[in-house]
Amino acid sequence: MRAARWIGRSLAVVGIVLGGLGAGAQDSANWSQWRGPTYNGAGSAKNLPDKLDKATALWSTPMPGHSNGTPVIHGDRIFTTASANDSMKLMAICLNKADGKVLWQHEVGDGFVKNSRNNFASPSPVTDGKRVIFLYGNGLLAAFEMDGKPLWKRDLWKEHGKWNMLWLYASSPLLYKNKLYVQAVHRNVAANGLAAAKPGDTLAESYVLGIDPETGKDQFKVARPSDAVAESRESFGTPIPWERPAGTQILIAGGDCMTGHDPETGKEIWRAGGWNPEKIPHWRLVPSPVTWEGIAIACPPKGGKMIAWKEGGQGDVTQTHLAWKALELSTDVCVPLVYQGKLYVLDGDKKTLSCGEPASGTKIWSVPIESRPVLRGSPTAGDGKIYATNEDGDVFCWSAVDGKLLSKVALEAKGTRGSVALVDGMVVVRSADKVWAFGTK
């Protein structure tokens, strides 16, 4: 869930555009953050299988515990997290991409809380090929060299205060152009059922951190104010870079609004909202921002229609830079996908996959998904195919052209909520209990 994520690198720029492929994107060999090399769930991976089958899987590796996060892939390594079944210890795990063998594994801290939907191992890792960074829902942040050697570790709760989230923190970090971004968009009082502030209480603020990935030290901390109330102040999304000729911004959604920030200082440049004028208290935001060329898209919760704004504004641009409000596109949890100039929206509750025009928000087609459980993993795409999972661990593969179902494989893993990662020749799935790799042997 999420959030996230995002990740510009000092790697060679890919010379192919896939409907929003940005200047910081990576090549098809890597999926270094949870929303892939385009930050919109798509990549340029080729030779991906459309028929997934457990019997012909390349490999599967049991995990020590559950995670809602998405595996990230760089070179010959796959990184994932887990909350250990026997102790809730928070694990940082590295697998060999070729055969799934565990190359190294570290206990980062104590995951002392979990619930029926989430635990502290939900944020996805990020990597730039030099280091891999793991964030956990209790504020632990740790960096390792690619071979597993510890680099640095922090406790953001001790330094900046506890994150007040009803369903536990799940935003992934963003690693972009040698800066790590961590958002804490949360309610300003404890989310424990006794949330009313008392006279004299110090209210917690929402904020954005900019961190040096080499040293782990803060480069900036910027407050992100909100007039939302209670749970509506919370965001499970991830910061997303919006790369434009006029300059890049970091987008954050939650607290009844979307904001654009200067990537060097974190300063807020603009904000837009308007989807919760009655200040309903339980409209937490789950999906991360989505971008397509000069348009930034937000996904209001609880059946709210998707809404987009044009670039170039400052201050409150809710009305002045409104691009469109979708009439038929909505998602409460799954982050939309931008791929080959089209916008794909997975409504995991209504169990539909829709295709729309990102320039206008107009729906082109919609297909039903035959699934008993809901879908919580966000869709990802490559090689003309779209992949997603449901909560029973079924993995779906559709044609990106018309939504035709190409295959469905049952991994029999209840509680699967992560997104699928894609690199050349390989589909990587983090089910509730294993990491799976599918491809051509």
Fold and architecture overview:
With 441 residues, this protein is mainly β. It has one domain (54-194, 202-439): 7 Propeller (Methylamine Dehydrogenase, Chain H). The chain is 1% helix and 37% strand. The protein contains 1 helix and 34 strands. It has one helix spanning 156-160; strands spanning 59-62, 65-66, 72-74, 77-84, 89-96, 102-110, 126-127, 131-135, 140-145, 150-155, 174-175, 180-184, 207-211, 218-223, 240-242, 249-253, 257-261, 268-273, 290-292, 295-298, 307-310, 315-316, 322-325, 337-339, 342-347, 352-356, 363-368, 380-382, 385-389, 394-399, 405-410, 421-423, 426-430, 434-439. Strands 2, 3, 4, 5 and 6 form a 5-stranded antiparallel sheet that branches. The protein has a 5-stranded mixed sheet with strand order 15-16-17-18-22, with no helix packed on it. Strand 16 (249-253) and strand 17 (257-261) form a beta hairpin. The longest helix has 5 residues, at 156-160. The chain is globular. The two termini are 31 Å apart. Residues 1-26 have low confidence and may be disordered.
Q: Which secondary structure elements does this structure contain, and how are they paired or packed?
A:
Blueprint: E1 59-62, E2 65-66, E3 72-74, E4 77-84, E5 89-96, E6 102-110, E7 126-127, E8 131-135, E9 140-145, E10 150-155, H1 156-160, E11 174-175, E12 180-184, E13 207-211, E14 218-223, E15 240-242, E16 249-253, E17 257-261, E18 268-273, E19 290-292, E20 295-298, E21 307-310, E22 315-316, E23 322-325, E24 337-339, E25 342-347, E26 352-356, E27 363-368, E28 380-382, E29 385-389, E30 394-399, E31 405-410, E32 421-423, E33 426-430, E34 434-439
Parallel strand pairs: 18-22
Antiparallel strand pairs: 1-34, 2-4, 3-4, 4-5, 5-6, 7-8, 8-9, 9-10, 11-12, 12-13, 13-14, 15-16, 16-17, 17-18, 19-20, 20-21, 21-23, 24-25, 25-26, 26-27, 28-29, 29-30, 30-31, 32-33, 33-34
